[in-house]
From TrEMBL:
Domain (Cytochrome c): residue spans on this chain: 168-334
Name used for this protein in its record: RecA-superfamily ATPase implicated in signal transduction
Lineage of the organism: Bacteria, Bacillati, Actinomycetota, Actinomycetes, Pseudonocardiales
Region (Disordered): 1-20
Family matches, as InterPro entries: AAA_16, Cyt_c-like_dom, P-loop_NTPase
Native species: Actinokineospora spheciospongiae
Source species, domain of life: Bacteria
Length: 397
């Protein structure tokens, strides 16, 4: 079949041709937008799930929904080795620009930009030389005495308040979308929770939408005990069979092509319903099919190609980040779970490796920080990447 017309799009954060199975989340966010715009209280939102289930794609879709409603919206991708102040400044600068085109008082916009600049400049270390100081690219003087204390919790509350007031002036709101939220540092995550709490109490039209790995709720709870009530948690999982089929059938139908029921069975079996894998195997099957429709044989022929690409770009890139000791821990998990997407007991890992549990704690903690595993519950550990155990067992064959 013509590869130019191939509709499937495997890629990190790339929107699939058919966003199937996420109607509930989209509808819920539409309600959030409407309630906040009307001054009704509403909790911020946190999306959690394994890698490859489409959290980043969904964040992008939620941002688009907010922009279509006239909201200011900015997106941040958190990194474990970077403080939040600088990327959050860039995201809010974009949100303020979204609002500025609708605001009739340029001086109000300039005031908020000045506060934002003051907040951003505090990311520079004290005593830094002028040529070494980062400049946020905001063409107004920095405000004085607002969001510039250097205390991230105080500054973030003041900044969020001013940005939210600007949105309120034009009858809309602000959405701050944060991907990989579990990677935010302890002080910054505490400040973010405190700011969300303060704004929720005042009814300010600003919501935070975070996305992260399954242990993100535990990270937030450890930061602020009230975070369990502060956010509405939504678990993003793999697609069920009808939605997985729709993710394949809809784009194929739009290209006026076909796929047999047996091929759909084979695709679901190979992908496990995970959106990223559906795109990877769908793309390979389309390219492998000599004629229309795509058959189960085409899926079988294409499987090694798809698996090879996943081994390099999806699994291998993560495995390479692990040290030899960490790889030993990962392989033990794979053996204990027989390659299935389920958790293993930390004590079982120690017994399997013939080690004391305490001696394995550094490797386990490092793997959690690298986002390769997470603590599913006390005493258990699981892969953040679906099918990772299967991949590790396949390496040994």
């Amino acid at each position: 079949m013509d590869p130019v017309r191939n509709p499937f799009a495997p890629g990190a954060g790339q929107r699939p041709p058919e966003l199937a199975g996420r109607e509930k989340e989209l509808t819920a966010f539409e309600v959030v937008l409407e309630r906040v715009a009307r001054g009704r209280p509403e909790r911020s939102l946190v999306l959690t799930g394994l890698r490859g289930v489409g959290k980043t794609v969904l964040l992008g879709e939620l941002r688009s929904m907010a922009v279509r409603r006239g909201w200011g919206a900015g997106k941040v991708e958190a990194r474990p080795d970077a403080a939040l102040r600088r990327p959050l400044s860039a995201a809010l600068h974009r949100a303020v620009r979204d609002l500025a085109v609708r605001h009739r008082a340029p001086e109000r916009v300039e005031h908020v930009l000045g506060v934002l600049k003051a907040f951003a400049l505090k990311s520079n270390p004290d005593g830094a030389k002028l040529r070494e100081r980062w400049q946020p690219g905001i063409d107004v003087p920095a405000a004085v005495g607002r969001a510039d204390s250097g205390d991230i919790e105080i500054d973030l509350v003041e900044l969020f308040t001013d940005v939210a007031e600007l949105a309120k002036d034009v009858g809309t709101g602000v959405a701050v979308l944060i991907d990989e939220m579990q990677d935010i540092g302890a002080d910054d995550i505490s400040a973010l929770c405190a700011a969300c709490h303060e704004l929720a109490q005042s009814g300010a039209p600003l919501v935070v939408v975070g996305a992260g790995l399954p242990h993100l709720p535990a990270v937030l709870s450890a930061s602020k005990s009230y975070s369990e009530r502060l956010f509405r948690y939504v678990r993003i999982d793999r697609l069920d069979r009808p939605d997985a089929d729709r993710a394949v059938l809809a784009p194929v139908d739009r290209e006026e092509a076909g796929i047999t029921p047996e091929a759909l069975d084979a695709l679901y079996e190979r992908s496990g319903g995970y959106p990223y894998f559906i795109q990877a195997f769908g793309k390979a099957a389309w390219d492998a099919a000599p004629t229309d429709p795509i058959t189960a044989e085409d899926v079988l022929v294409a499987a090694p190609e798809a698996e090879g690409e996943l081994a390099v770009g999806f699994f291998g890139s993560r495995y390479e980040r692990a040290t030899p000791a960490e790889r030993e821990y990962l392989r033990a998990m794979a053996e204990l779970t027989h390659g299935r997407d389920e958790g293993a007991g930390t004590s079982d890992v120690a017994v399997f490796l013939g080690r004391k549990p305490s001696s394995l704690s550094p490797a386990r903690d490092s793997l959690i920080k690298k986002g390769l595993v997470y603590s599913a519950e006390r005493g258990r550990i699981a892969f953040t990447v679906p099918h990772f155990g299967r991949y590790l067992l396949g390496m040994e064959e």
